[in-house]
Write a structure and sequence with these properties.
The protein is of the alpha/beta class. It is built from 22 helices and 8 strands. The two termini are about 45 Å apart. An 8-stranded mixed sheet has the order 3-4-2-5-6-1-7-8, sandwiched between helices. It folds into 3 domains: about 90 residues, SRP54, nucleotide-binding domain (Four Helix Bundle (Hemerythrin (Met), subunit A), Up-down Bundle); about 180 residues, P-loop containing nucleotide triphosphate hydrolases (Rossmann fold, 3-Layer(aba) Sandwich); about 160 residues, Signal recognition particle, SRP54 subunit, M-domain (434 Repressor (Amino-terminal Domain), Orthogonal Bundle). About 55% of the residues lie in helices and about 10% in strands. α10 links the parallel β5 and β6.
Length: about 475
C-alpha cells in the first residue's frame, strides 16, 4: 500500500527537539575519544528529548536501539571525530524514520484522478483541500475540480466555494438534499464530461472516529475509486493524532496523512510517530497559513533542520524562486546610476518576507539554535521586517525617493504614522545608508548577484539599542544572500 504524509505548517515544528539535541551533541563533539558509557549517556538524553517532543515510546525505543547498534561499533571508536560520527548516525536514523526520499502525490491514473480527503472535524480538511488543489494547478498544470461532500457542518460547502474563488479553482455546484455518495457520483461524472484531470473530494468529519463515519467514507471510496486517500490530522492533539491515524489506517486504504497546525507545535513527535506507526512516507510540507505555502518534503533536509545543520538546499531554492528577474534588472540599472532609494529597500524587505521572514530563513540555516539565542540576546524582534515596511510606507513619495529630506520633525511624523519610535526610524535610515554604499560596491557583480546582495544589505552593523541588521551573524553560504 502506497502511503504518504502531507505536513502542513511552518518552521516551528521540532523546535524543542532541535534545542535539546543541540545541547546533547555540543557536549559530545567537544570530547576527543568516546567510551561506550559516553555514548549511552548521550543516547539516554536523546531518548528523553524524543519523549518530551511527544514521540511515541515504542518509536523512541526503536530509534535509540538503531542508533546505539551503530554508535558503539568500531566505526565510531576509530573515527577521527567520534562525536561528529554519532551525530551523523543520528541524522541517518532520522532520515530513515522520516522516510528515505521525497515522494510526490500519486496522479498515475486515468483522468479524472480522485483524491479523497478524510479526517476528524476541525482538523483542517477544507483548507488543506484548497492548498493541494492550488499546488496541483500551479506546479503540475492539472485541471482540478473541488467538491464538498460535507453535508453535516453548516456552511462547509460554502467555505470550499469561497476558497475555490480565492485560488481560481472551480467547485462542484451545490445541490441541496443530496447525500455524500450522490455528490461524489455527480463530481466524478462532471469531471469526466468536462475534461478534468483531478477531483478533490472534501468529506465530512466527526468529533471522534465512529462506525457511521467509516461507513460513509468507505461508500464514497467505492464510488470514486480514489488514487489517493489522505487523512488530515491535527498535530496539536499529539498522541491522539497518532491514534486517529492508526484507526483510519486499519479501516481505510489510506495513502497518506496530512498533518496540520504544525506551526503551533514545537515538538513534532506526532510526525515521527505517525510515520513509524503507519509506515507511510511523508510527501509534502506546509510552510505557513497561506494557500500557496506547500512544498515537497525532503526527509534528509528535515533531519538536517532537526539537528541544527540547517537546510541550505531549500534556502537556495527559495531564494532563486523569490528573486524576480525583472525586478533585478530594474534594480541593477538604478544602482548603476546611483539612484537606489527607499522603494528599492522596501522591495528587499518584501523579498525576505517572501522567503518566509526571519524565522523562515533561520529555520533553514546551520546553527539555528545558536542564532536564535544570539537574536534573543540582541533583542532582535522577528517582526522587525513588518515594522520597517510600515516605516517606509509612512514616508511621502518625495521622502522615499530622497531619504536625505528626512529631518527631525519628519522622523517624528513617520514614527507616529508607522506606530514605531524615532530610534527605529533612525536605525532604518542608517541601514539604508549602509546598504546604498554596499550596492555601489557590488554593481559590477551582475544583476541577479546584486539582487541577492541587496537582501544582505539588511545585515550591516546595527544602530542603537544593540539591534544589528536583519541578516547579521548568519553563517556564510556560497551563492546565498549576504555572501
Amino acid at each position: 500500500m502506497l502511503c504518504g504524509i502531507l505536513w502542513n505548517g511552518s518552521g516551528a515544528m521540532f523546535d524543542s527537539l532541535t534545542d535539546r539535541l543541540g545541547s546533547v551533541f555540543d557536549k559530545l563533539t567537544r570530547r576527543g575519544a568516546l567510551s561506550e558509557g559516553d555514548v549511552d549517556a548521550a543516547l539516554r538524553e536523546v531518548r528523553q528529548a524524543l519523549l518530551e517532543a511527544d514521540v511515541a515510546l515504542p518509536v523512541a525505543r526503536d530509534f535509540i536501539a538503531k542508533v546505539r547498534e551503530r554508535a558503539v561499533g568500531q566505526e565510531v571508536v576509530k573515527s577521527v571525530s567520534p562525536g561528529q560520527m554519532v551525530v551523523k548516525i543520528v541524522h541517518d536514523a532520522l532520515v530513515d524514520t522520516l522516510g528515505s526520499e521525497a515522494v510526490e502525490i500519486n496522479l498515475n491514473a486515468v483522468p479524472p484522478a480522485a483524491i479523497l480527503m478524510v479526517g476528524l472535524q476541525g482538523s483542517g480538511k477544507t483548507t488543506t483541500t484548497a492548498k493541494l488543489a492550488k499546488r496541483l494547478v500551479a506546479q503540475d498544470k492539472k485541471k482540478v475540480l473541488m467538491a464538498s461532500l460535507d453535508t453535516r457542518r453548516p456552511a462547509a460547502m460554502e467555505q470550499l466555494k469561497v476558497l475555490g474563488e480565492q485560488i481560481d479553482v472551480p467547485t462542484l455546484p451545490i445541490v441541496e438534499g443530496q447525500n455524500p455518495t450522490d455528490i461524489a457520483k455527480r463530481a466524478m461524472q462532471a469531471a469526466r464530461l468536462q475534461g478534468y484531470d483531478v477531483v478533490m473530494l472534501d468529506t465530512a468529519g466527526r468529533m471522534h472516529v465512529d462506525e457511521a463515519l467509516m461507513a460513509e467514507v468507505q461508500a464514497i471510496g467505492g464510488v470514486a475509486q480514489p488514487v489517493e486517500t489522505l487523512l488530515v490530522a491535527d498535530s496539536l492533539t499529539g498522541q491522539d493524532a497518532v491514534n486517529v491515524a492508526e484507526q483510519f489506517n486499519k479501516r481505510l486504504n489510506l495513502t497518506g496523512i496530512v498533518l496540520t497546525r504544525v506551526d503551533g507545535d514545537g515538538r513534532g513527535g506526532a510526525a515521527l510517530s505517525m510515520r513509524a506507526v503507519t509506515g507511510c512516507p511523508i510527501k509534502l510540507l506546509g510552510v505557513g497559513e497561506k494557500l500557496d505555502e506547500l512544498e515537497t518534503f525532503h526527509p534528509d533536509r528535515i533531519a538536517g533542520r532537526i539537528l541544527g545543520m540547517g537546510d541550505v538546499v531549500s534556502l537556495v531554492e527559495k531564494a532563486s524562486e523569490s528573486i524576480d528577474e525583472e525586478q533585478a534588472e530594474k534594480l541593477a540599472k538604478k544602482v548603476q546610476k546611483g539612484q537606489f532609494d527607499m522603494n528599492d529597500l522596501l522591495d528587499q524587505l518584501r523579498q525576505i518576507s517572501k522567503m518566509g521572514g526571519l524565522d523562515g530563513l533561520m529555520a533553514m540555516l546551520p546553527g539555528v539554535g545558536k542564532m536564535k539565542k544570539q537574536m534573543a540576546e540582541a533583542n532582535l524582534d522577528p517582526k522587525l521586517i513588518k515594522r520597517q515596511e510600515a516605516i517606509i510606507l509612512s514616508m511621502t513619495t518625495a521622502e522615499r525617493d530622497s531619504p536625505k529630506l528626512i529631518h527631525a520633525s519628519r522622523k517624528k511624523r513617520i514614527a507616529a504614522g508607522s506606530g514605531t519610535s524615532v530610534q527605529e526610524v533612525n536605525r532604518l535610515l542608517k541601514q539604508f545608508k549602509q546598504m546604498s554604499g554596499m550596492m555601489k560596491k557590488v554593481s559590477k557583480m551582475g544583476k541577479k548577484g546584486m539582487m541577492r546582495q541587496g537582501l544582505a544589505g539588511l545585515g550591516g552593523p546595527g544602530g542603537s539599542g544593540g539591534q544589528g541588521g536583519l541578516m547579521q551573524g548568519m553563517p556564510k553560504i556560497p551563492g546565498m544572500p549576504g555572501q
